[in-house]
Fold these 2 entries.
Entry 1:
Amino acid sequence: MSSIIPGAMLGLLGGGQLGRMFTMAAQSMGYRVTVLDPAEGSPAGSIAERHLCADYHDASALHELSTTCAGVTTEFENVPADVLRFLEQHCVVSPPARSVSIAQNRLLEKQFLAANGFSVAPFLAIQNKDDLSTAIDALFFPGILKVSQFGYDGKGQVRIHTPHELSDAFTYLQQQPCVLEQLLPLACEISVIVARGFDDEISLFPVAENQHMHGILDMSIVPARISAGIVQQARKMATDVAIQLDYRGVLCIEFFVLTDGRLFINEIAPRPHNSGHYTLDACITSQFEQQARVLCRLPQGSTALHTPVVMVNLLGDLWQSGEPDWNKVLSNPNAKLHLYGKHEARPGRKMGHFTVLADTVEQALQQAEAIKVSLK
Ligand code: ADP
Ligand code: MG
């Protein structure tokens, strides 16, 4: 099948910061973008050529996307899979509806991974109150009860120490379908962004080491400070997941490195990922440009790293006494600032990020830490 040529209109489901960075990458290659997002003034909707401010199921918005866009992609993993299925009948869609329907549901995702032989934390489905009584196996405690759908940034999760805490936790999570999983002893967390094209070409971005604060990604360190053996295993597992899912597009695999050195998959995100933002400044091709290339059936770009890099998220908490002084970031000539154009800063809300590039990971980390401290 032929490529989608620059100048064409591309559709984007979701208007958040991931979509904004996709839109910028697509526009810089000459494409135009139509965003479908129910919110006014969204980060992507405000820079795209066109913003359809409507629900994802809105019939006239979907008609417009399907008749004016040569290809449609997503930036938001909770786009209803039936919307993607509808669009697949009219234009190129990446990622595929089937992959998204698995990745957007923790239970289906864990069942898929386990069935295909990937290591995941021992888990149990908690769909209703009756399932609570089956969760008495010591294997799951201490554990974490997670809602199956719509959880993000550590939201929709409760840590559980003993079986009798489970019922309260399930009530707290409003008895939504959940997954109970064993709390694993982590040495560190890493992620791999993988792209798989319609021609089966696969590219892998360098492995990122991720540090979280209160369940939200705080910092990504690249290259990850882990052994070559674990890097190789993570790359192999990421490749295999993309193939087994018959994925077409950009996918993130989050891993747990256990204290005994074993590698488990935590979760998969069917889209570019916060832990891949470093690729904008530090790789020949960013995760967002790769997303545009795959969607448009163009050859993929090199994922090679220019230099070691550290990415730090900027959360709304920093805005407590007004706009932060960005000179504190920009006075380091090796730092790059990215802000997402969000109008309201709320605690925990991702407002932007910065990256620091340096000759060594240690130097990048030290400079990033110094900037973080100065911003506080
Ligand atoms: P989210 O969708 O919010 O990113 P995750 O399932 O990735 O949810 O969990 C958020 C963070 O909580 C993880 O990055 C990790 O730090 C911690 N966590 C989640 N599950 C486990 C587990 N089974 N064992 C240890 N830590 C965990
Ligand atoms: Mg996660």
Entry 2:
Amino acid sequence: MAKFEYAPAPESRAIVDLQPSYGLFIGGEFVPGQGGAGFKTVSPATEEVLAEVTDATAADVDAAVAAARAAYEQVWGRMPGGDRGKYLFRIARILQERAREFAVLESLDNGKPIRESRDVDVPLAAAHFFYHAGWADKLQYASLGPDPRPHGVVGQVIPWNFPLLMLAWKIAPALATGNTVVLKPAETTPLTALLFAQVCQQADLPPGVVNIVTGAGATGQAIVDHPGVDKLAFTGSTAVGKMIARSIAGTRKHATLELGGKAANIVFDDAPIDQAVEGIVNGIFFNQGHVCCAGSRLLVQESVAEEVEKRLKRRLATLRVGDPLDKNTDVGAINSRAQLERITALTAAGEAEGAQRWDTGCELPAKGFWFRPTVFTGVSQTHRIAQEEIFGPVLSVLTFRTPQEAVAKANNTPYGLSAGVWTEKGSRILWMADQLRAGVVWANTFNKFDPTSPFGGYKESGYGREGGRHGLAAYVTTGESQ
Ligand code: NAD
């Protein structure tokens, strides 16, 4: 297939007004941290320092929780749902109005292609606020129990792969149900959360309803351990999720944990192969594979395996890897040096264990953190690359002969977040969806997200759901469970 040459089409970054340093957003204002330390956030595509952010201490977290408590007790927890909804609608509209600014900033700080931040992350973040705005005055009709009430102060800790979108998944339902929030973005991607703090000011959100504290694991731990936090919502790795579950065991804190995944994308021999190939590419190379529900294990029926592999490699050779701000880019930068090292180590293990490695051989920029789209064939179920989450643009290919074998292999992982099924047969889709131990099963598509649809895992992928009515349930207590 011919590879077309494109002229560069860079999105201007002039719309982003980067400050050299940022404080913490507590009680409706940006304040300096009490510990005085800061850390730098860089563009993973160029290693350029974008800004210095504050490393929040336990004392800062304490101040943020106090602000959230006061806002809950004095204003937000008492406000009629219809009024809360108006604030959420306002935030949603401001996100739309400032969409380009958010998209450019997200691509700068995260390394993801502007096409994705512009067309997926930011519109979906706004959609989450619109959706939850609609629920704010209708909670008694959401089948949440006789008298759904907020928990109070919610502590939220999020990862770096969809910084603004994960913030929206967390903050929108919490606010709609009458809770106040202390949120910590990931240490490598704090900038869109800090821009969101400005949106809260612009929307005249009462001070203390949303508080944003920046920092690394220790700051997250301070939120988890704080006695004034009533509920925790965490998205991140299974290892940290387990530590959090241990920390809060025996306390009265409620928690939802959205953790890792190792999804099977299953292609049957009756599937339209070219469409399936698009779904495989979207499944694992979208967002550089930094996706918890990525289709990182391709299970392909043996009779079509060779053909699928051939067409997949041909398609991958056309992917454009490079500048995240170029509108033609398909695959951007790896988010951090640490993540690049993890991907490199796991792919080396794949080779050492005997799988066959193939990559596109494309040119990579000299500076920054990059990894070529990579496919491993001849993968067996015991290989680390078939069991462990790589969280990068790396696909492991396994084969199967019967639907039963596909199910057994798909379920043979400690995770259970998502799965994909490609077949023409509707009855097979339903049977597979019933058998697969995964929170989300896509049929003849992959990586489709919608605020109305619950998302979450089985097994080591965590517990609780986000999105839809199920997601609201995590943010309320009812008569029975208080
Ligand atoms: P991570 O667990 O290292 O970090 C996630 C967040 O937790 C960060 O903000 C980090 O600072 C914080 N943190 C680290 N140690 C902590 C501690 N001891 N206490 C409290 N907070 C702490 O994960 P990551 O590398 O940033 O993100 C990648 C992981 O997230 C992957 O495993 C991915 O599958 C998962 N993820 C899951 C979902 C989902 O919805 N299930 C969505 C996105 C990402």
